[in-house]
Design brief:
alpha/beta; nine-stranded mixed sheet; 11 strands; about 250 residues; Rossmann fold; binds adenosine monophosphate; 6 helices
Length: about 250
């Protein structure tokens, strides 16, 4: 069984993102990492390989040349091969999904495991769009994944409980936080990963025009939090909630 894992290079989740006076997000000298949900996707694919349920894992990243570092991280965790689709443009989910469809048509995987969302743009669209383009079943927000022959059981966290779905392969899965805890790459595996192959392509080689359809009009930093006040009594608190906060 072959698994494709699309991984996005995003601003590291520990970084406090700043907005430049020009209105764009400041990405100069900012630490970039693999999207955390995609690390979970890589981990899940590796676990399936360790259980002899998968043979090959291909990590795919669409982005600038530096996205090859993100692919190397996936290779060091245990993926077998990488595909870097080099694109200087910020790609929208539909274009990402179209490129992934073209790769899936060529590679013929049994499973594509994506993150449920990329933490930079919070779109939560690519997996669903890819499932529609491929006309494959989708198990989104997976918190548990079981494979039995051709059938896949996906447990999803939904409002008020858990939902269990049965899917037939080939299928799309998107990962939720509780699916697993990703491993750290060991030093010997980081060394081994340097020898693993990374194929280089471009969106144009799949006939995709990477130009965005949406224009970002404005990006604003969150409002600074105003300092609180101390009250002397519950009576004063109730008065302030009524007269100043307008809550009561
Ligand atoms: P999004 O729909 O943008 O929130 O992204 C959902 C998932 O799609 C991510 O967690 C990745 O698995 C995949 N994805 C999105 N953008 C890219 C990209 N540029 N390269 C590789 N995978 C991506």
């Amino acid at each position: 069984m072959k698994i494709l894992v699309p991984i996005k290079r995003v601003v590291d989740y520990n970084v406090r993102v700043q907005v430049k006076p020009s209105g764009s997000v400041d990405l100069d000298n900012v630490k970039m990492s693999m999207n955390p949900f995609d690390e979970i996707a890589v981990e899940e694919a590796i676990r399936l390989k360790e259980q002899n349920k998968a043979k090959e894992i291909i990590a795919i990243s669409i982005g600038p040349a530096q996205a090859s570092e993100t692919i190397r991280t996936a290779l060091a965790m245990g993926a077998d091969k990488g595909i870097l689709v080099q694109s200087p443009e910020r790609l929208e989910p539909l274009n990402v999904a179209k490129i992934l469809k073209a790769i899936a048509d060529k590679e013929k995987p049994d499973l594509i495991i994506l993150g449920k969302q990329a933490i930079d743009d919070d779109c939560n669209q690519t997996g669903q769009m890819l499932a529609a383009l491929l006309n494959w079943p989708q198990g989104t927000f997976a918190s548990k994944l079981e494979l039995n022959g051709d059938s896949i059981t996906v447990t999803r966290e939904v409002d008020g409980g858990l939902q269990t779905l049965a899917l037939k392969r080939p299928a799309i899965i998107t990962t939720d936080l509780r699916l697993n805890e990703p491993r750290y790459a060991t030093l010997p595996n980081i060394m081994k990963a340097k020898k693993k192959p990374i194929e280089q392509t471009t969106p144009e080689s799949y006939g995709i025009n990477p130009a965005p359809r949406l224009e970002i009009l404005e990006t604003l930093p969150p409002k600074e939090r105003e300092g609180g006040v101390k009250v002397e009594s519950i009576k004063e608190l109730v008065e302030k909630l009524r007269s100043e906060a307008g809550i009561l």
